[in-house]
Amino acid sequence: MKQNCKNGRLSAICMMLLITLAAQAQTIVIDGTLVNNGLFDNCEGTVINNGTILNNGTILCPLFSDSETYDIPASTVNTAIATIDVSGGVIGGEIPYTFTASELPAGIAISTAGIISGTPTKAGAAGTAILTVTDNKGVEKSIDISHGAISKATPTYEVPTGLTAITGQTLADVALPSGFNWEAELTTSVGDAGDNEFTVTYTPADTDNYLEITGIKVIITVMKGNRIYSPIDNTVQLFPNPANDRVTLSGLSGNEIITLTDLSGRILRNIQALDEKAILAVGDLSSGVYLVRIIQADAVKTMKLVKN
Length: 308
What we know:
By secondary structure, the protein is mainly beta.
């Protein structure tokens, strides 16, 4: 079809076309050039234009054109996406336009001006979302867009340091911070005296959105020990006792291994004294009774600690 419709004088063919567009929910294919000097109503129908629409009049309802550039690429939890402006896809109707969306990934939103932005907060599969534009008269048009999969993020963590043991102990005797686990069997020996390397796995609290990290290298400093001990004299003191946040051990020689265990024997702290005093942090422990063990090369002393 090729028809030129002049201002103020519409031919019968043009009039029929305009009436059809305004009144029926249908698809009209325009293969030539439509010069519209009257009112062009696309509220109910769909126009597929294979030629050119020259609008010198008024498009009564908004047209929202889809584009691959509006799709959200694959992303990662806690990494902001590049902003996407969809406002350029709308013509017609009465301005101002207001944009809304549904089914966008968590953490991503669209502004009323048509800007998609945000930082994904949940990992998930690829999917689709619905974008809607509403013109000043309340007429709505919607399009579907796709979003890529959202990958789990790499968690932040601190590699455990200051791990100590004595010869003859196993990995079960060496306490790790929360979230870390030995990759070798707990019955594995800590090895000979010296700095010995082992690997641990870090498991974040939120495994739905963060990756588990394996193969983290840590060092255990192993000191020579003797399983036959003689008592340490009473110069070693533990205070305050009962304690709230931390306790101090005094009267040390500076080469002791100090362990804190619960009554079942589970090691909760394992440190090496560097001078005549050492401090144990206990603020995170539950109220109850614990055992503090001071080990020298040929002597040992066990003291009872009460945590408020």
